[in-house]
Write a structure and sequence with these properties.
Elements: E1 10-13, H1 24-28, H2 44-54, E2 59-62, H3 92-99, E3 116-119, E4 122-126, H4 130-143, E5 167-169, H5 176-194, E6 204-212, E7 220-223, E8 229-234, E9 242-244, E10 247-249, E11 254-256, E12 263-268, E13 275-277, E14 280-283, E15 285-292
Antiparallel strand pairs: 1-2, 3-4, 4-12, 5-6, 6-15, 7-13, 8-12, 8-15, 9-14, 10-11, 10-13
């Protein structure tokens, strides 16, 4: 049998474990009087398969149809609002299908032109699905411990934030490890493609969701990020959820005023890309920010 899916077919096998599809009539006839699982010194699944063989019941494995995947549930925490968000380690394929943008893979297809460059060395590409954006925002709002947007910030080692925002850090919701895994698996390959010769470590201390509101903190003053490069992912929709917003890179007199939900900006942090957050004039704007390789 080819477990990699290079060949499809039906195989007669002596042993199967974990998942079985059995007609009830077989269990009620040939196997009705047989102890299917118990035998000293043998695992139940081994006894089960031996009992089938002894009764002349063939076992088959087929990869002609897709019956889905087994889900690892040992670390599934139902106390969380959206437990699937934390499954990037245990169920990576399901996590990607649910939370990564459907056009992410096109980033690596040069002919598609999915990656845009609205300003010098500022790249724009699809990262999150709508579901990821919505669940991350709802998780943060349910947590509710937004910072006050002041310079004093006890979450930081020095207790001081030079460019404060109203935000919640990933480590406040216990998502730091999962987020760094996302950076390593999905952002590092994009970085290596867009900035040839730079090999990121995907190390990030500052990972946070920012909230902009006209009556709270509508904008962000000009600043440099404390990063080698920054990613900035829009989590909701301009014109529907909010008005205004966007980012202006002052040195290049270039601004992006219509961020797309689920799309990420990637730009250098220190030295070159002095930028500001443009005022949000209505509604609430959310962005996910990481300062990578500080």
């Amino acid at each position: 049998m080819c477990v990699f899916g290079l060949f499809s077919g039906l195989w007669n096998v002596p042993y199967i474990t974990q998942v079985y599809l059995i007609k009830g009539s077989v269990l009620r006839s040939k196997l009705a009087q047989v102890n299917l699982f118990m035998d000293d010194g043998m695992d139940p699944d081994m006894v089960f398969c031996r009992s089938f063989r002894d009764q002349g019941v063939f076992m088959f494995v087929s990869n002609r149809d897709d019956f889905g995947r087994l889900v690892a549930s040992s670390n599934f925490n139902t106390s969380r609002l959206y437990p699937d968000l934390w499954q990037i380690f245990d169920n990576p394929v399901d996590w990607r299908e649910k939370y990564v943008h459907e056009n992410y893979s096109k980033i690596f297809e040069d002919e598609t032109g999915v990656v845009e460059q609205p300003c010098p060395d500022v790249y724009w590409f699809p990262a999150f699905s709508d579901k990821m954006c919505d669940q991350l925002v709802e998780t943060m709002e349910a947590h509710g411990e937004w910072s006050g947007g002041s310079h004093k910030d006890e979450r930081l080692a020095g207790g001081y934030e030079n460019v404060p925002t109203v935000d919640i850090h990933m480590n406040q919701i216990g998502f730091e490890k999962e987020w760094l895994k996302f950076l390593k698996e999905y952002i590092v390959p994009v970085t290596e493609k867009l900035y040839p010769g730079y090999y990121p470590k995907a190390h990030a201390i500052m990972n946070f969701v920012v909230r902009y509101r006209p009556d709270e903190q509508p904008s962000l003053r000009p600043h440099h990020d404390s990063s080698t490069f920054t990613i900035n992912i829009a989590l909701n929709r301009k014109g529907i959820d909010y008005e205004g917003g966007g980012c202006r890179f002052l040195r290049y007199n270039c601004k992006v005023e219509s961020p797309r939900k689920g799309w990420s900006f990637m730009h250098p942090g220190r030295l070159t890309h002095y930028h500001e957050g443009l005022p949000t004039t209505r509604g609430t704007r959310y962005i996910m920010v990481s300062f990578v390789d500080p």
